[in-house]
Amino acid sequence: MKPQMTAETKNTILVDGERIDLRNRSLAALLAWLIPGAGHFYQGRHAKGVLFLVCILSAWILGFALGGGHVVYASWVPGDKRWHYFLQAGVGGAALPALLQAKLMKDSTTKDGETSRNYEPYWGGFMAPPLRPVEESAADEVSAWYARHGAGYEMGTWYTVIAGLLNILVIYDAYGGPLSVPISGKKKEEKESEEDADLKDSD
Amino acid sequence: MLPISPSYLLYYLPLIIAISLVFGATRHENTKLILQHALQTGRWITGFMGTLFIIICILDWLL
């Protein structure tokens, strides 16, 4: 069902027969990005808030654990362009430590592209990028992570990526209310026949 | 027949539950409708993945 705006206020919508006050939409979207479900709590949609928090954070934490805690890091250097991070960052607050670690690594990398010896990551290396250089043909730190965690590293990466993507849907839901249900199959035929009948009536 | 351990298929379960529930909840407000939508989504994705799995298994057996 497509959400309907009511005349009372542009922030009140009617979905499934329930009236929802979206309050400050931008703030709700920001909160939803920072912590999955937080935007819904702010709007008083507690059941959905709990559902999003549990589903998205469980997928995220499970993926993080499967990958041995090394699947979420920010890096954009030759040999290690971690594009997955852009999607993982959909979960917001949980992915932000990676940005601090990436900044520290950047400051600790020499002009030759190697990590300096006095580099010490924050929080024992939590979400820290691999030591430089990272080369496809060499036995670097990324290869060691793959070797240690096997398929878990790949699975962990996908779990965290999917959690980030799901949270984008949640952010939209906090901002504008539920998405409309696609019209497909039988329903589409019914709608077309209704439209044909309306056209005939108007003739 | 499978090149990996069947236990790897268990990774699918938490993911499909999370995806289906989030899909359902981002399309409805009513709990009953959310669960109905989640079931439909879960069934559809499982059917799609299962069909692909069978096709790949047949191709593997033929080639």
Q: What does the secondary structure layout of this molecule look like, with pairings?
A:
The complex is a heterodimer of chains A (203) and B (63).
Chain A: E1 4-5, E2 12-15, E3 18-21, H1 25-34, H2 38-42, H3 46-66, E4 76-77, E5 80-81, H4 84-88, H5 97-107, H6 141-149, H7 151-176, H8 185-202
Helix pairs in contact in A: 1-7, 3-7
Chain B: H1 12-25, H2 31-62
Structure description:
- With 203 residues, chain A is mainly alpha-helical.
- Chain A has a domain at 53-176.
- Chain A is built from 8 helices and 5 strands, in the order E-E-E-H-H-H-E-E-H-H-H-H-H.
- In chain A, the strands form 2 sheets. A 3-stranded antiparallel β-sheet of chain A has the order 1-2-3, with no helix packed on it. Chain A has a two-stranded antiparallel ribbon with strand order 4-5.
- The mean pLDDT of chain A is 88.
- With 63 residues, chain B is mostly helical.
- Chain B is 73% helix and 0% strand.
- In chain B, helix 1 (12-25) packs across helix 2.
- The two termini of chain B are 13 Å apart.
- Chains A and B meet through helix 3 and helix 7 of A and helix 1 and helix 2 of B.
